[in-house]
Amino acid sequence: MESDLRSNALAIIQMERQGAPMRITEDKTLIVTEEDISGLLCYLHRDGTPYEDGFDFEIRLQEIAIEPGAVHRVTIEFTDEDEADRQDISSSVYRVIAQHDPQFVPPGEAD
After folding, report:
1. Which of 17, 18, 59, 85 has CA 20 to 30 A from 9's CA?
2. Average pLDDT of 42-61?
3. DSSP strand E in the chain: where?
4. CA angle 61-65-66, nearest 5°?
5. pLDDT-derived band of residue 83, with 50, 70 and 90 as boundaries?
6. What are phi and psi of 62, to 5 degrees?
7. By three-state DSSP, how is residue 24 classified?
8. CA distance 36 to 17
9. Which pLDDT band, with edges at 50, 70 and 90, does 15 fall under?
10. Quick one: 40 exposed, middle or buried, by C-beta within 10 A (0-12, 13-18, 19+)?
11. Helix, strand or coil for residue 85?
């Protein structure tokens, strides 16, 4: 039952995606789009999925390859409506990236 729900959710998400996808640029900046943030908020409020789990799901869904050394910077495209959740989302995104790329240093943690 749970796998059916997840499959249906994946199909709906893939159909609804119309903006520029999350991506890693040539200068190793991971761009997390407004659509990605909207998805994380939806996962939390609709399904109770924590931001970290939602973001990990999104990078897998979008087939983003985050390997050691792949990400040097992160740009998160927030909207004004996301302001209340900005810190929690940012921290979660940085933790997931660090799990996939141990060389990634989140902002404010550099020596």
Report:
1. 85
2. 93
3. 23-24, 29-32, 73-76
4. 115
5. confident
6. -90, 0
7. strand
8. 9
9. very low
10. buried
11. helix
